[in-house]
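Reopening this one. Same input as before:
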Amino acid sequence: MTGSLSPRQLRIGYLMQNGAPDLSQISGPQLHTLAVINGLIKLGHTVRAVGFQKDRLGWSDDLQEWSPPRYGFTKRRWFRYVESLLRRIQYELKIPFLGLFDSLHYADACHHHLDGFDVLYERHGYMGFGGLIAARWLGVPVVLELNGNIIREIDERGLSIPPLQRRIGMWITIQTLKSADRVVVVSEALRQTLIHEYGIPTGKVSVVLNGVNIELFSQPHDHDAIRSRHGLPSDPIVTFVGSFEPWHGVDLLVSSFEQVRQRHPDSQLVIVGDGSGKDKAVSRANDLGLGDRVRFLGRLPQDQVAAVLSISRVLVAPYPFESGDIVGTPLKIMEYMAAGKGIVASTAPIHERIEDGVTGLRVAQANEKALADGIVKLLENDELCASLGGNAFRQAQTYSWDHVSAELANIFMEVLGHASETAQAQPGSVRLENS
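Same output, byte for byte:
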């Protein structure tokens, strides 16, 4: 965490070149992006987003209306000719993809629409270095936000990438991180990975944990109305919130719940979220004879997620991997804690916010029996469940999005202070004007 600095209203360019979340569709990345931008605006800063929405690049000052970008040299005839020629040569000779022209187009758009801004803040994606180029053209610092190990994510999704292409992509991604003025990550485990495995200088990596809407997840609800809306019985409910990515462990949870049902036949598993692995999880539940006891609610708005958590007895985070660097501290952990419920989380490093026996139970990852035992322990002990939930709720009060935004603003001020010192030491530096 950074120290408190003198307040100053900043003009912040929020960048999303690669892997930008669809801001019209509910997801963890969407919630995080909106919360960060709105939090910075709430503090009095000006934020302009430049990124891809619906597969089209645009810019927006309110995240509602997106305007097409203006370009400079990348739309000139000579550039288009060179680009077309080199792309054809690349295709014909099967030369690995470098992302150069994509990043140059993106940098050109940022150069036009973010002139006069103080700092660029990018939700960083694989092989995206247009923001870094734009920052150097504009003469301003760039801070990269990394929410997971994007290199490992590609491997875990099973994407088929030729070895040479993978090495090039990894090199470009790491060099971009090294060249940034600061990298913000959402867990200590990810920070250690960047430092020790990828060689990012220690002083360049800051940890800013994910946040949560405290009021939304702690407000009272009409439990009967919630059960009626989703067709849920009054039986004890075990709930998971998240996507169906391989690292979230939904298949493990469904398999584990068979053991829970053997000991607690009245229990119900509720899964909130969606993703490409949903069909596989549904099939697994049916194969185990759990079809009537496992409910898949799909994506829900945040207020409905909070409502479902309020009627749940136990909340689970079964992340099965031994390494915790593929994702940062999950949003669901913060939401679970704010809901004040009993939590069962794996011992993976990404669940470092959960202290075993204090704010939840930690169980061995990738272990169906251990996960089932943890769930059953809370189902059978109301007093323990209430105690852990109360402790988690009290700790969650320090994880508000206002706190996250304030930390980010302090980091921007630190980076700007360093950039100012560097500029004074190099009086001959030149800032490019718009093309």
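So the earlier flakiness isn't reproducible anymore. For the record, Confidence is low (pLDDT under 50) at residues 1-6, 428-435.
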